Amino acid sequence: MCAPALVQPLSIRLRECPAQAHEHAEGSDFMTSLLGGDATPEAFTALTAQLYYVYDALEAAMRRHRESVWAGQIYDARLERRDAIATDLAFLLGPGWREEITPLPATRRYVERLEEADEIGVIGHHYVRYLGDVAGGQVIATMMQRLYGVSPEGLSFYDFSALGKIKPFRDDYRAALDGLDLTDAQAAALTDEAELAFALNSDVFADLAGEPAL
């Protein structure tokens, strides 16, 4: 059980409360296989394809709210990944990549949630996706090169060099979260949405594990 929302800084609450859902996503069969070297380059490409739909929806949602009181304090165009993923897919699948990919059922549900989420909800998804990407992106890119021979031209998604040093960026991001003027109920709703975001990612991984690779 999490402490009441106002007892802890929001950044701490977001780290601790969804911890079990976070571990479940990271420990999914698909990700365990991919990061353990037991998958294929095609599995990596399949993941990249699903992420295109997720980030297209997430970034459209964040742009809708970027002038708002709370989202405006979190929004940073340097984080946006959709165009980088498109570049990766063009390299991995060729210029006709859009005709070769389709969202899995879990991805469609994820997108629907992002499309219907309010400002508080979008911030929860923003935290889950981007802070995780920034934290582990370079490690994953290195592993994909080493394990599957993926060329750097197919790994633009994981390049956050535009942010500068990662630790100061992450510290500033957490400070911005802690500075949001939320009620207890709003902070709790944001944390709940972050937990849902991890569950939605787990569902996408489960669908990927059950699908033939591209």
UniProtKB/TrEMBL annotation:
<protein>
    <submittedName>
        <fullName>Heme oxygenase</fullName>
    </submittedName>
</protein>
<dbReference type="GO" id="GO:0006788">
    <property type="term" value="P:heme oxidation"/>
</dbReference>
<dbReference type="GO" id="GO:0042167">
    <property type="term" value="P:heme catabolic process"/>
</dbReference>
<keyword id="KW-0479">Metal-binding</keyword>
<feature type="binding site">
    <location>
        <position position="127"/>
    </location>
    <ligand>
        <name>heme b</name>
    </ligand>
</feature>
<dbReference type="GO" id="GO:0006979">
    <property type="term" value="P:response to oxidative stress"/>
</dbReference>
<dbReference type="GO" id="GO:0020037">
    <property type="term" value="F:heme binding"/>
</dbReference>
<dbReference type="Pfam" id="PF01126">
    <property type="entry name" value="Heme_oxygenase"/>
</dbReference>
<dbReference type="GO" id="GO:0046872">
    <property type="term" value="F:metal ion binding"/>
</dbReference>
<dbReference type="GO" id="GO:0004392">
    <property type="term" value="F:heme oxygenase (decyclizing) activity"/>
</dbReference>
<feature type="binding site">
    <location>
        <position position="174"/>
    </location>
    <ligand>
        <name>heme b</name>
    </ligand>
</feature>
<keyword id="KW-0408">Iron</keyword>
<dbReference type="InterPro" id="IPR016053">
    <property type="entry name" value="Haem_Oase-like"/>
</dbReference>
<dbReference type="InterPro" id="IPR002051">
    <property type="entry name" value="Haem_Oase"/>
</dbReference>
<feature type="binding site">
    <location>
        <position position="15"/>
    </location>
    <ligand>
        <name>heme b</name>
    </ligand>
</feature>
<dbReference type="InterPro" id="IPR016084">
    <property type="entry name" value="Haem_Oase-like_multi-hlx"/>
</dbReference>
<keyword id="KW-0349">Heme</keyword>
<feature type="binding site" description="axial binding residue">
    <location>
        <position position="22"/>
    </location>
    <ligand>
        <name>heme b</name>
    </ligand>
</feature>
